[in-house]
Amino acid sequence: MTLVRSDVMPTIKDVAKRANVSVATVSRVINNTGYVNIETRHLVEKAIEELGYVPNELARSLFRKKSKIIGLIVPHISTYFFGELIEAIEDAVTQEGYKLMIFNSKDDAELEKKYLNVLNQYNIDGLILTANTRSAKSYLKLNIPILTIDHIIDSTVPSITSDNVRGGELAARKLIENGAKKIIHFRGPSDLITVVDRARGFYQVVDEHNIEAYSFDLDFKNPDINDIEMFIKKHPDVDGIFCSSDIIALYAISALKKLGYNIPEDVQVIGFDNIELSGVLVPKLTTIAQPIDDFGKVSMKIIKTLLQKKELEEVHQVLPVNLIERDTTKKA
Amino acid sequence: MTLVRSDVMPTIKDVAKRANVSVATVSRVINNTGYVNIETRHLVEKAIEELGYVPNELARSLFRKKSKIIGLIVPHISTYFFGELIEAIEDAVTQEGYKLMIFNSKDDAELEKKYLNVLNQYNIDGLILTANTRSAKSYLKLNIPILTIDHIIDSTVPSITSDNVRGGELAARKLIENGAKKIIHFRGPSDLITVVDRARGFYQVVDEHNIEAYSFDLDFKNPDINDIEMFIKKHPDVDGIFCSSDIIALYAISALKKLGYNIPEDVQVIGFDNIELSGVLVPKLTTIAQPIDDFGKVSMKIIKTLLQKKELEEVHQVLPVNLIERDTTKKA
Which residues touch B124 (CB under 8 Å, ≥6 apart)? Predict the structure, then answer.
């Protein structure tokens, strides 16, 4: 690759001279500010094109096809876990001198197609997909580093996931060790790999110990507390509940209180995620902690490795989870 | 205003004829698709301008350098209230055929400067600022419709705010009506206008009734539950608490429970915002509801009015709040 020295590149002055206008006018055209007569604008644009002039830092980065922007596609923003995840990713991205542009997919294919255009036109340097999108394959065509979080779109596309199977195992083991004999598993929609893996780990241990267990599927974004209450009423002798998110666990605790159960004496509850609230609200929630900050750091590390065209040590990384014992499970 | 009859308006054929090109070429220029030689483009644009040709709605917006993108600057994403606000704005924006691009300011001037460049170069159509930013004045230079939420950067820049003063009044009045004699006001940082206004309304009513009241400032994003506990211990005979966010209220309730108070018998608590959790967790929180969905709808309505270069009926709109009575205040 040949390095283009700045002293041979045309400057804004060259453009102004060729178009026979002032530097200020060229600047107005480039930055699209203030009024410029349409004919003058055309003269300036023509001069820019003919000279191959590349304006300022940002435009130069465009010339190099680098924008220093990482795109992030999320399914929802108002979900508590995603809020924390987005901030963790943003911290890591800005720490490396990049900016983050966030796109909310809302599971809407039409919207994603529009975003795709934006990503394409703006020369986004890399893309992080935190949710399975309908347009996954189209994103690959962008020909930029792509990383998925919590799902795998292709064996060659790098991904990061928590060790969800292990999380399910840890939760089941803790409940059973503490004497639970009949466990309810409130989980998110079973088309999500995270939900399936948490359930898989959970049922492995439950089956191993021959423990009675029942699952109920809820919406991750808007779990319905009435469904939770109804399902508990159907199994009044429940003594353990494992939820595949902390928010679902907070809802389950509210339903249990309303029905007159004591926590953890009558029913023990374990959540998943370890969002900030889980350690603050009373009773403090026992939960499986996801490494939210590591999601940010590892994401950026992978994107940087890919940008440097280096090989990744691991294409699909699984990050460790751990059990945080608080007040919704019995003490040993 | 004169109504222009469609039969006297120039058509795309007139433009093609005048520019001496095909209709397809004019269409490519208007829709900014496919390759058009720069000189041909200029001929077409000139013909369009001279004839006063008005292409269909979408094409017209493209020609005028419209991106159909609204930028949104937020201070934080992981705050529960902001998560809900962002989704409400996004709903309204996409409903009108626009896309939303979200920028997290993090109160970082350097970052904001970079975003400013992005906004500029990408021809963002309009901008919503949900937080006071260090670069407020620079955003004005973008020369696009700007709207602020929850603060005012200039008397001429449109804004939307909840009726925060009234919210504070409603909370104080309810606590006092229900017999509170010593009230603590846990609030956010007192440099935020929302916080100041809520406190103002609150103290107006408190002073009117000669009620003892104490304020304590907390961080909105990360209120420290230890500070809350300490301050309650300092005023053990407190019987009413007004918090300037629901999250602070959830923290206060946890601190009260830990200290052995019954809610609402010993201490009544009122929050602010009406986030989803406030109506679900036990005890259900009495709170001042902000019209989160209206923030989205009204924002987009204002931006659209500004894009059409029409005058706003009100430059600074104040949206109504209301008291939602739940289980943390006594029943009448």
Answer: B67, B69, B70, B71, B101, B142, B144
The three-state (H, E, C) secondary structure of A39-92, written as one string: HHHHHHHHHHHHHCCCCCHHHHHHHCCCCCEEEEEECCCCCHHHHHHHHHHHHH
Domain boundaries, chain A: 6-63, 69-162+293-320, 164-290
Give pLDDT tens digits for B263-292: 999 999 999 999 999 999 989 999 999 999
Please tell me the class of the A6-63 domain: mainly alpha
Alpha helices (H) along A122-263: 136-140, 164-177, 193-208, 225-234, 246-258
Say yes or no: do domains B69-162+293-320 and B164-290 share a fold: yes
User: In percent, how much of chain A has pLDDT > 70?
Assistant: 89
B84 contacts on A by Cβ (under 8 Å): 78
CA distances from A131 to A135, A138, A166, A199, B262 (A): 11, 14, 21, 19, 42
Alpha-carbon A156 to chain mean position: 19
**pLDDT tens track for B52-102:** 776 553 334 334 456 678 889 888 787 888 888 998 998 898 888 787 888
Task: Report the pLDDT value the prediction gives residue B83, as an integer from 0 to 100.
Answer: 87
Interface-testing mutation among A226, A282, A292, A328, with chain B (most B C-beta atoms within 10 A): A282
* Cβ neighbours of residue B11 closer than 8 Å, sequence gap 6 or more: B53
* Whether A94 and B111 lie within 8 Å, measured CB to CB: yes
Q: Counting Cβ atoms within 10 Å, is residue B253 exposed (0-12), middle (13-18) or buried (19+)?
A: buried
pLDDT of residue B58: 35
Instruction: Output B146 or A113, whichever has higher pLDDT.
Output: B146
d(CA A139, CA A154): 12
Whole-number mean pLDDT of chain B? 86
- A-chain CB neighbours of B49 within 8 Å are 38
Per-residue pLDDT band at B4 (split at 50, 70, 90): very low
CATH of domain B69-162+293-320: 3.40.50.2300
CB of B173 closer than 8 Å to CB of B206: no
Residue to test with chain B: of A102, A220, A278, A326, most B Cβ within 10 A = A102
Query: Are B218 and B185 spatial neighbours (Cβ–Cβ below 8 Å)?
Result: no
Note the CATH number of domain B164-290. Answer: 3.40.50.2300
Residues in chain B: 332
Complex-level ipTM: 0.73
Confirm if B281 and A250 have CB atoms less than 8 A apart. Answer: yes
Interface contact A280-B143, CB threshold 8 A: no
pLDDT(A114) > 80? no
Structure tokens given for A171:
């939760």
Tens of pLDDT, residue by residue over B232-259, are 999 999 999 999 999 999 999 999 999 9
CB atoms inside a 10 Å sphere around CB B146:
24
CB contact under 8 A, B121 and A46: no
The torsion angle over the Cα atoms of residues A26, A32, A34 and A38, rounded to 10 degrees, is 70
CA separation for the pair B187, B196 (Å, rounded): 9
Yes or no, beta carbons of B277 and A114 under 8 Å apart: no
Tokens of B37: 């030689």
CA dist A55 and A57 (Å) reads 7
